Each structure stands twice: as C-alpha cells, then as structure tokens.
Amino acid sequence: MISSTTNEKIVTDFQKKVDSINNQKQLTFIEKKELALKESETLKRPSYHL
Q1: What is the CA radius of gyration of the chain?
Q2: What is the pLDDT of residue 34?
Q3: Mean pLDDT by 10 residues, the chain (50 residues)
Q4: pTM for the whole thing?
Q5: With left for phi above 0 and alpha for psi between -120 and 50, is residue 2 left, alpha or beta?
Q6: Integer distance in angstroms from the first to the last C-alpha of the chain?
C-alpha cells in the first residue's frame, strides 16, 4: 500500500501543476485583454493584482 505521505506529495505536486497551468491561462487572458484595451484606450491602463 502507498503511505499517506506519498499520497499527499502526489496531490501537492498535482495541485502545483494545476496552479501553474491556471496561471498561464490567466496571463494569456489578461494579455489579450490588455491588447484590446490598448487599442480602445491609449491613455488609461488597468492595473491587475495577481
């Protein structure tokens, strides 16, 4: 049987991978949003808090 600590490590590693994938998706989404905003509003720049 697999020990609980090994299971926890697997879950933690998986969670880290999911978080990094989500962060990459979020960044590309924000970049697209910023590009669209640059085209329409050249003076105002939104600030994003990640």
Answers
A1: 18
A2: 81
A3: 81 92 82 77 57
A4: 0.43
A5: beta
A6: 40
What is the DSSP annotation of 1-50? ---HHHHHHHHHHHHHHHHHHHHHHHHHHHHHHHHHHHHH-SS-------
State both tokens at 11: 């879950």
Beta carbons within 8 Å of 26's beta carbon, 6+ residues apart? 50
CA distance linking residue 23 with residue 4, whole number of Å: 28
Identify the CA nearest to 30 among candidates 38, 40, 41, 19. 38
- Alpha-carbon distance of 9 to 28, in angstroms, equals 29
Q: Which of 20, 18, 45 is nearest to 33 (CA)?
A: 45
pLDDT at 43: 53
